[in-house]
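Fold this sequence, please.
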Amino acid sequence: MNIPSYRLICLTFFLLFSSTSWGELPAAAGSQQLPSLAPMLKQAMPAVVNITTQGRVVERSPLFDDPLFRRFFDVPDIQRERRTQGLGSGVIIDSQQGYVLTNNHVIKNAETIIIRLHDGRQIEARLVGTDPDTDIAVLQIKADNLTAIPSADSSQLEVGDFVVAIGNPFGLGQTVTSGIVSALGRSGLGIESYEDFIQTDASINPGNSGGALVNLRGELVGINTAIIGPAGGNVGIGFAIPINMAKSIMAQLIQHGEVRRGRLGVGAQDLTPELAQSFNLGQQQGAIITMVNPDSPADRAGLKVGDVVTAINGKPLRNTLDLRNVVGLLPVGSELDIEIIRQGRSHNMTAIIALPQFRKIKGGKLNRQLRGSTLRDITNDPRYSGDIEGMLIAEIESNSPAARAGLHEGDIIIGMNDTAIANLEMLEKRLKQRSRRKAWLNILRGRTELYIMLP
């Protein structure tokens, strides 16, 4: 390159940059903008809040759940109180009423719930209601200038859609991660009683629970809820509750303070390829009716044992979990259009979901050692889907004879003295027949079976 050419190039650059102030790009470069999620996030992030809780729980040594231990060592049941703190996230759904959606496990055992808004304001929240079976909770705050997030139709999501998770991981403050929808309709994970999760690889960590999963338009598609990770951290498998499901639960919590689940009144099992072959069905998915409760919605609709349910309300049914989810997540009074196969022919049935009727009894009427407890049947309870038979300990008073015997609220009595107990009538009969023989109750607590002695 000769000297005059070099000088010409230098002069050209000098004139170009001398006409542009520092920090600005030439007009040609400035006309091209890099792709960014920032504009969308500026709209969505003010609707996502941080939640801190304070509470207390009463703890006892698991040794005291063993009646033999207490009797052998003759020691009192020692309990201690422990203060708890929690962190999580929430999403403002209604700016006028101040409703905030979050997870039940975020605010469980909380006595005080503090919400920190995007602008730094801290407000104490009121608990409207919770549904542990779906892990949904609704809070309410009183404040001006709240920002709510618009909701999408989560039934329109597809695998591969881009999504963004917004929350408060590890208490660091509001954080954004991105990914795609990895799978839809995840169930059978054992995380909640009713499961229909969106699976995503957007990073979700402890503290993200209750936060927002949004699409690229900034619309809410899910409530971040759970992760699968060997160390409790993100490995690219996170789960969110679809917003359609969450808002349905939210509506019941606002209206009733609880979720009033109905029942169809059937027992069922999965349609396997082997069963499909024996039934001469081309259908490979569905649920086979194995029991129909008398005078139940299913009975009144005309369902019979042996019917294969293939779809409900036009949506194909994969298995009994789908059947349980559909019934358990619809409000009482909802109409079900049920498609079945009976003896090789297709039929359509219509059923109306109804409230289950449970018989309750005070435990003290059955045995003095059961005083302080309330027992009820679970025969028609949709949470157990006919998989478990027994008596539920629905309520229990602290320091009552029943509590001192080792019973907990939520325990299910499934047997007595090695005899199965299916319902309240059987328990009453067995207790009356025992004469002076000591009674050993076979208890199901979560997934653990144990024995409790009634003297």
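Residues 1-31 have pLDDT under 50 and may be disordered. The domain at 46-140 is CATH 2.40.10.10 (Thrombin, subunit H).
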